[in-house]
Model the fold of this input.
Amino acid sequence: MLAKVSKVILPPAPSAAKLESMQVSRTHLAIALGTGGLIVAVFLGYLYWLSNQPPVLSRSDERDPLNQMPISITMNPFRDRTIERTANSFIGEMRDGNCRKLLAQWERDYRRKRADFVCNSESQHPLLKWNLVEWEDAPPLVILHYKGERYNGPSQDSTYKDLFSVTEEKKESGWTVTKYDSFY
Done:
């Protein structure tokens, strides 16, 4: 059995003809180019302004009642991240068990007992992860405050969160970690 198929012819879309007949005047073109140029200029101006701002653009007015750290901070995306890389490298080495090697220079001066305490505590409460929560400029130092998660003990069966800080100083060789503070 054969079915009959009917042929359907649709009329051309009316808007296609309308678009073809529209003419672009020089005024329209000048307005479009001017608007586009203004948008690009404002955007480039904003990027220039942002590149000259400090590392922390804003801090929330709300503060943690226990430690007085801001609830949130907005970091400048164009900041120099050398300081953060140095701190993250130091923290990563501490986490990986290289505390004695990192703090060997501390053992030569008055911080020897502090270095022993830090290394013993780090081995008992290993750091799992950390997050930057505050940036403090105190020229010539920069103090980075972190919120970290640590194991409760060597058994590694439970974790807790704490605050710790890394202090860096600009020296001839670059940024150097000069202090590490943590509550265990």
